[in-house]
Amino acid sequence: MPLLAAIARMGRAGKQTLLDFARTGSLGRRTGHGMVDGLRFKTARQLFAARPTAARDILAVPDDRPSVEFCRALLAGRTPEEAISFCAYMLPTRAAVWWGHECLGNLGDLLDEQDHGLLALVQVWVGGADGSFGEDEAIDRRTPAGWIALAACSGLQEQPARAVATGILMGLARVTLDERRSVLADFVEMGIAIAEAEALQQA
Hints:
Oligomer: single chain
Low-confidence stretches: 5-10, 12-16, 21-37
Strand content: under 5%
């Protein structure tokens, strides 16, 4: 994934984060409706058909709406957290791991030293490390970044998408209640931005 690898190698100090991209919409060529063609799952129904475990994590019934439209409907619904899970399933594994990295990286001091250390290793992996991240048994599942790292492990039993979503939601639980909804929305828009960037790369 040249785009993700290039961004990851630049490092956080030398790049505009994808959260900024999500806020400004500056990902380049888009369709008139703010979406790009070529997403790997054009509709929510296609995503659920390709990823059966999504039905266990997302209670909303899939339909033939475009994936991005369905995701934003989840965000606006009674259980906006389901939009996080949907984004995680919508993205390829390495892109989903990068999304999780960026989400947690934007939480700053809400994470501890262990989390930041794991995120640094995740950045290296996304930037082009070959193979798996490591052995999942050695990663602490009690910490948000641990779940993002687990998604990169070849021996992971859970779906990588579920691991990414778990890590992001654990991080969101540390955000104050009055800010949590807006931060969640930013994270979802970031996930959509990454999905669109991936689609542009494949176009």
